[in-house]
């Protein structure tokens, strides 16, 4: 008597998802266009919970999109633009084939373009959303800005990327937002804090890329298209928030100074402007030339519990302020072999003054001969003429200072000296993790303990150890004798019959230990009674923990072996 | 103004001069001829060259002349090689024309149309194509031109090289396949060319150049032609074009050029009026996970412990890229300037892009469990005392693995049967071996009669079951056991003793304590007494037979085979302690038979591959089964035919299981050398399930030949457990 039988797969999760091909047909787009649309709109496949149900009983591997997402794409004005572009290409081909050059030109001039503003707004309804998702955009733009202009993508894109990244870095300098830097083998990581968001990006080293053949540059270009739009809007907003002029303009004073410096310009003003900006040596024009207003934290009447937190926060803030002004008053000079852009950016971010040889790049502010230079950054074993009143240090010092949040002693970083390891500032060791000894040293420095004494002590202890070693030698000889005696004894024992009486060892009853043992046994027994499912999970967790411990131990052992080896080498060298 | 015009005119004349030459050239390329001829022609012409230099008049003349005498001249003069012609174009052309004037007759003499033409007419093609053919091409008649018969092998060539004085100036012509000996002049020419000099000896390359057109501006133009009329009147063609464009603009076909908006004006404050209403639309949105931040491994100058050792590096290289823990090898550079570009940078970016738009996203809840919470809360073993905790006695003496042990119902004596062919009797409290009974075969099973009024031991070896009456009890008890064994005489021997053969032990054997021998058709593996002590069941596992279980009655000396059909390989059997039930464990099931009704009442599924042992709770409602796949199953007969609990706490096969008669304890022995004692309280309340808590892992036996503990049994009154192992010892844990 019941109604019609319900058909399968006509309701529920089967109707919430759509396969890629069906989606494509629904949108009437070619696959590349569909891909582009997905990239621009940020649509990605979803993994349904019950794949078989969604796949109508089949287990074939398919990618599923949410039906709602696809419906949402239906009304996208960009889709119309794609079609327009398709028609444009057809017309252009035809004109080429007929060798109608005027028509070709006319068509090219009226090439259909589209804007992605509304998509940016749609994908990131608030500014914070956009900031949160900017890491990929930054990485991509920084990569594209290092490309040579050799046809892998449009020159305009490369220029635009370069412009946007320079704007971004200039903003970071002006707002003193840089927190951490890390030189890795891939490139240089920077981390800035903007509006409370930590943003990390990676910049490749300045080398020409050998472009891989198995990479689809069209996909990357589509991403970059979106990212440049996003980054541009973000830059605009950020510049506005600091009362800076956008597009950025150099301070008139600074500009004048720069002009004076290089009198004969090597390029047109318009062309060299970006380069001047990218030199990071001058400050930017503000809309309102306001004095530095420091936002003092207001005091609120709070509970005692919160009070502690508040104090802590205040302390942190003070520390951060100190970090921001770390290089203030220091004058750096960059030798030509160091990465200028990176160092200039970092130093300027912390208030230092920086210059370089005039022939390296536009925008140098003072010469090598300047007597007031405090730090000269060199990356070669020796330099010709040395000035007495400055430190010749290696570039790692600057980065390590930033990560340690204090100005480190320069002794370890002198020219030609073997550098201490460069540690990742992004690793936050929890309890039980392996902490490299260098990190411990830096932490001690941060707490304000003096490293010099430690060093002395170490040396002393080393000397003592050496003394011990000498003793050891003697002791070894003695030991040899003792061992011989022992051997003799053993032989004597062997010749005697086996039966003998040995003094018994009294078992010491240790209640604490016994209790512990009992507890451990109890636990072991309880584990035996676990359910299969729980046991599996438990084993997995324990395995993970054990692995972690193992890794830590391994690292520690490796370090110890290395240090011992080093010591032995040193001793050998001394002898 | 004038200057430019003049130069224009000059250009014009030059162009005029050149055009005929070009024509010539193109034609020449089409033709073909011999190289030699060409060289000679050069030589001949050179002599007259010096004289001419002046005048466009001549060039005009030559152009005219050319057009007249094209056909004849070229055929002879020029070779097919268009390539080397370009360089000495200028020289040649002028000369050849002169020749045309003065030497006409001679050339005609040389050339005759009916002369046998040996020139190869195959064209300018690679001659390798004819490599394998006897001919090198075709003549004008389409006949093959054969290669000269070359039979020069290496040796001949060598001889030739040694003997022939002209060998060094002999050149092989690929096109005709013949050898040509160069003349002195030709050799000289080659040498000059090799030196990079002009081919002509007389040519002075350093002669001062005289410009034809002076660079100075002259007073008079070269031509004084008035401007055309058309330069004064508007062009109709242009008018047409303009009108077309105007029309196209009117119709909207041509749009004005759009202003390129590339500057800073492109961006504006996009988020000036933020509203969170849009955010609600994206409830299903899962933001892409961020790329994890780099660790110390990635540093350009990492601490030494993060660098790979040789083995780690080798391992890394062997691993599949997907399995690697780090996608790169950590490297240490002594200074920043030595750091190279990262080769996979673009790849990594691209992979990230692919992840962003191709990877399906799914929200996954991470399991955040404290592992301590997963451990079940059980009563503490301390509270469940008494149970055996320590090894207190070891019974040594056997020479082989001790297969089976049994404790007398009084709890004073322990019997053990071993592979060394003896049964030993031990005093439990002192671990003293009281008696050794050599039985002459590996003992598979010993079982003490549970009746406290008799003192009898059943021993299984090979196909025999022996009943032993050891002198280890009071006289009263011994007498009563003798009486039991002798009872059949009074009750007149039955018609037939059934499938097994009964016989009395005699002589020496009798002196040792052996009383009865029951002969079975096959090897006996296990024995089980009924609680009353009169019935004895024996198991002979065999796949193909229905005679796997015998039940013997001692008092009547009768045996019977209770099962008519084979239901699987029987592993062990057991009597119900109080009721007339009989448990038969096959490989995977336990069948329970009602002996009174003679039917099967229950079939328990063990959920294991191969049952090794079984024990019945003294209450009779619970059964435990050990299996070779490391499991121990507890069955609650009232609950279900499936195990109430499966315990997997042994690492290896479970060999034996046992219940304590009085205490709520059970033990299991395994090949991993351990005996695990568990507390198993059974409640009278049917609604409450038994409580099972492992209380102690007893270790003492050594694992020998992959065998650990073989048998386990409890003391009848004390919370003590005995175990026998493959290390030929029996141990007591108290």
UniProtKB/TrEMBL annotation, chain A:
Component of the PeBoW complex, which is required for maturation of 28S and 5.8S ribosomal RNAs and formation of the 60S ribosome. GO terms for biological process: maturation of 5.8S rRNA from tricistronic rRNA transcript (SSU-rRNA, 5.8S rRNA, LSU-rRNA); maturation of LSU-rRNA from tricistronic rRNA transcript (SSU-rRNA, 5.8S rRNA, LSU-rRNA). Residues 298-319, 447-519, 551-575 are annotated as: Disordered. SUPFAM superfamilies: BRCT domain. GO terms for cellular component: nucleoplasm; PeBoW complex; preribosome, large subunit precursor. CDD domains: BRCT_pescadillo_like. Belongs to the pescadillo family. It comes from Hippocampus comes. Its main location: nucleus. This is Pescadillo homolog. Residues 322-415 form the BRCT domain. The keyword Protein biosynthesis does not apply. Keywords: Coiled coil, Nucleus, Ribosome biogenesis, rRNA processing. It holds the Pfam family BRCT_2. It is found in: Nucleus, Nucleolus; Nucleus, Nucleoplasm.
UniProtKB/TrEMBL annotation, chain B:
This is Ribosome biogenesis protein BOP1. Residues 56-66 have a biased composition (Low complexity). Component of the PeBoW complex, composed of BOP1, PES1 and WDR12. The complex is held together by BOP1, which interacts with PES1 via its N-terminal domain and with WDR12 via a high-affinity interaction between the seven-bladed beta-propeller domains of the 2 proteins. The NOP7 complex associates with the 66S pre-ribosome. The PeBoW complex associates with DDX27, BOP1 interacts directly with DDX27. Component of the PeBoW complex, composed of BOP1, PES1 and WDR12. Within the PeBoW complex BOP1 interacts directly with PES1 and WDR12. The PeBoW complex also associates with the 66S pre-ribosome. SUPFAM superfamilies: WD40 repeat-like. The keyword Lyase does not apply. One of its GO terms (biological process) is maturation of LSU-rRNA from tricistronic rRNA transcript (SSU-rRNA, 5.8S rRNA, LSU-rRNA). InterPro entries: BOP1/Erb1, BOP1_N_dom, WD40/YVTN_repeat-like_dom_sf, WD40_repeat_CS, WD40_repeat_dom_sf, WD40_rpt. Residues 130-388 form the BOP1 N-terminal domain. WD repeats lie at residues 395-436, 702-734. Residues 94-107 have a biased composition (Basic and acidic residues). One of its GO terms (molecular function) is ribonucleoprotein complex binding. Component of the PeBoW complex, which is required for maturation of 28S and 5.8S ribosomal RNAs and formation of the 60S ribosome. Belongs to the WD repeat BOP1/ERB1 family. Keywords: Nucleus, Repeat, Ribosome biogenesis, rRNA processing, WD repeat. Its main location: nucleus. GO terms for cellular component: nucleoplasm; PeBoW complex; preribosome, large subunit precursor. It comes from Hippocampus comes. Pfam families: BOP1NT (PF08145), WD40 (PF00400). Residues 1-117 are annotated as: Disordered. It is found in: Nucleus, Nucleolus; Nucleus, Nucleoplasm. The keyword Aminoacyl-tRNA synthetase does not apply. Residues 67-93, 108-117 have a biased composition (Acidic residues). PANTHER family: RIBOSOME BIOGENESIS PROTEIN BOP1, RIBOSOME BIOGENESIS PROTEIN BOP1 BLOCK OF PROLIFERATION 1 PROTEIN.
